[in-house]
Write a sequence for this structure.
């Protein structure tokens, strides 16, 4: 009588040594794939260039909102002998993303009209200027703290942007950056490393060291410069202010002259109409 074992189909017996060889080969292939993926990621991270639009895709920047702490950035840049060109800075920070808003926060002296030239230039070049009156403290220093305004704007707009870029080195923003990150937004910090709080760098998704890309955000020296940020922080000659107050485009001048000419024409017409009331026309023929 045949045993139950003999009724089954013929079985293929594989030596244990060959099974272990196959398992080792599979493990080796998986390890090789993981190594290649790790090498690719390491290459991308080591070659990450914030000034290269393509490299920004690594962070999926999407809609970008920029928040610039004007006073903090000015003093940090001055310590590195750099005058910031805000058009260049905005292009670098934007990368391949789509700009939602670019905010510039600064303190102003209400009685100093010379500062308005720079702020007007910022507004006309795509920045939303948020200003606050300078306060005089007991030691004679003057300062305007806009940390609350910056934090509130970052939180209130979270969800409308994909990436927030905070240009500041102030450690006070650590909690705000964390709060925005918890809402699912990517938060980047831009500044000069030596002037940026380490805790702020640690909580950011990425840190853009402006010191390493200083040549790409530096303002070129030219005699026909249209603005100078130093008017917000340092006294400047009155001759410069007169130059800033001139119209930037002929359109405004032409519009003003058109109003003057039309007013003069209306006056002459009114005088002519008044004179015709005394004219008597007769026909002697």
């Amino acid at each position: 009588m045949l045993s139950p074992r003999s009724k089954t189909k013929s079985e293929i017996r594989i030596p244990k040594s060959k099974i272990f060889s196959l398992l080792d080969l599979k493990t080796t292939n998986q390890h090789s794939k993981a190594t290649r993926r790790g090498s690719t990621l390491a290459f991308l991270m080591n070659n990450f260039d914030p000034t290269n639009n393509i490299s920004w895709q690594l962070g999926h920047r999407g809609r970008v909102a920029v928040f610039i702490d004007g006073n903090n950035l000015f003093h940090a840049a001055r310590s590195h002998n750099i005058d910031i060109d805000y058009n260049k800075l905005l292009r670098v920070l934007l990368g391949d993303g789509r700009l939602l808003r670019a905010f510039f926060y600064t303190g102003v002296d209400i009685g100093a009209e010379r500062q308005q030239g720079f702020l007007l230039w910022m507004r006309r070049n795509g920045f939303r200027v948020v200003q606050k009156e300078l306060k005089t403290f007991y030691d004679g220093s003057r300062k305007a703290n806009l940390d609350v305004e910056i934090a509130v704007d970052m939180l209130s707009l979270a969800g409308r942007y994909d990436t927030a870029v905070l240009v500041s080195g102030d450690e006070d923003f650590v909690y705000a950056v964390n709060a925005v990150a918890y809402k699912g937004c990517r938060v980047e910090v831009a500044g000069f490393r030596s002037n940026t709080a380490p805790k702020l760098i640690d909580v950011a998704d990425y840190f853009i060291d402006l010191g390493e890309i200083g040549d790409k955000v530096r303002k070129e020296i030219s005699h026909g410069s249209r603005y100078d940020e130093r008017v917000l922080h340092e006294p400047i000659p009155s001759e410069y202010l007169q130059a800033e107050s001139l119209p930037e485009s002929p359109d405004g001048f032409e519009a003003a002259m058109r109003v003057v000419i039309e007013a003069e024409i209306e006056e002459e017409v009114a005088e002519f109409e008044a004179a015709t009331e005394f004219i008597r026309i007769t026909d002697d023929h």
